[in-house]
Amino acid sequence: MNIVVCVKQVPDTATERKLRSDDKTLDREAADGVINELDEYAVEEALTIKEAHGGEVTVLTMGPEKASESIRKALAMGADKAVHVSDEALHGSDALSTSYALAQVLKKVGFDIVILGAESTDARTGLLASMLSERLGVPQVTLANKVEIDGSSLTAQRLTDYGFDRVEASLPAVVSVVEKINEPRYPSFKGIMAAKKKPVEKLAVADAEIDAAKVGLAGASTEVVDFADAPPREKGQIVKDEGDGGVKVAEFLASKKFI
Amino acid sequence: MAEILVLVDHVDGEVKKVTFELLTLARRHGDAAAVWVGPGYEGAKDKLAEYGAAKVYVAADEELTSYVVAPKAELLAQLVAEKSPAAVLVAATGEGKEIAGRLAVKTESGVLTDVVDVADGFVGEHSIFGGAIVSHAKVTKGTPIIAVRPNSTAPEAAPSTPAEEQVSVTLSDAAKAAKVVEKVVQEKGERPELTEAAIVVSGGRGVGGADNFKLIEELADSLGAAVGASRAATDAGWYPHTFQVGQTGKTVSPQLYIAVGISGAIQHRAGMQTSKTIVAINKDPDAPIFELVDYGIVGDLFQVAPQLTEEITKRK
Known about the structure:
Chain A is of the alpha/beta class. Chain A has helices at residues 37-53, 68-77, 95-109, 128-136, 189-195, 216-219, 245-255, and strands at residues 2-6, 9-11, 33-35, 56-62, 81-85, 113-117, 140-150, 153-159, 163-170, 173-177, 200-203, 222-229, 237-240.
């Protein structure tokens, strides 16, 4: 089984995140980079599938040189190898052009199953998995909190507003996972050491037959017009409970016409 | 005026409130044309008229809801090609955004997600990085596809008599690749749905155990509110994960958010920071949640929360 897991390096949510004033893209220098949290669940799911069905797990990422840190993390968890698409031409790509670039790479490297985290903590668009499914012409099995594979058929539980859908599809397929599908493993010391020796293939846009005009800021189909710090919330009233705290909250709610 | 397509969000014919918000938003920028997918339109048509749909495209074929996402995107792509709408609005739910994603690829259009308001020229407003930054973005290619966050627009009634047009679509094989074999509706009781609720009451680490969540539920029920939970509470198994509010859970934007025993880590704030009024009950005066609140009580939630429930019930 050829399993490809897409990961993204994002700014650590515990640090202050910024946009760049010049081209209004994410400031990747301002904050520490970490692997996107939901992608760790995707890596875990990929490893679980490999352990049950055999095969190989390839980590795929697109991003600047620094994104190699997230690749190492996924390799340390147990993935076998990685493909890192990195090119100045990709800077500023939006979801539509990112999905184009990744689809080109996936066509080149081949796959039985592509696994992604359902969304990233930076842009939080949640678009990529459905876009890849559309571009690759393979089933979309997304927002899954349970995935089972039997031969070439796949069943999953897809989270919905009302509960979940049971979904059936056949491989190859694109899968996105939500938190709680599994418990991501911590890399062992041995895993961390082994990761240093695992192969990472570097691809520029030309290597993956990505049309440079369709990616990056110039190829984007959306544009950030402006941005500013959110206006600070007015300082609220904070009261120490003197035994009547519940009544006081009720009075506040009444003053705001909630009760 | 140009048509703006609004994909109706409904569960088995029960229209969700976000649809009325989308219709209200669409009317500000053009003629609101609702797109109904699946069975159940007859029972819902009055509601769509009440909120000012000038037109309704009805695609009633059950096949459209028998597969994951793709058929809805195919239908919308067909309507975009035939009707040349000025924009397409969908709800920024997990599924809504996925429909937007496929539609964007099909129509080679830009897509904006989690928009909280739409200005002239279909400039979308976003609240990003857990609410720290407000940004505006627009679509520069194709038909603007905009996924709007529930609870960000106040729905306004504007009764109309919509024209109806039946639409049929012949699905491609690719659209039928992931089959929904069973829809499992989980018991949610009488409470409103988390992302749609006007009031949300959430419990966190301070609640201390699964049994104690009864306090949170009782407070929520006294207000007709939805129940949420912080990640600490769902990770501990005290409350089901589907109710998690935060970065990796649901994003809510209710009129009133009451955080009980929640410290307010960024993980949680990212999911609730755009709530209009925020109240917190926490025993730690230095908890970061107090930076956000309109009203905060520093105290023991096991004293304050039941007293609040009792007082609300008394005042009814």
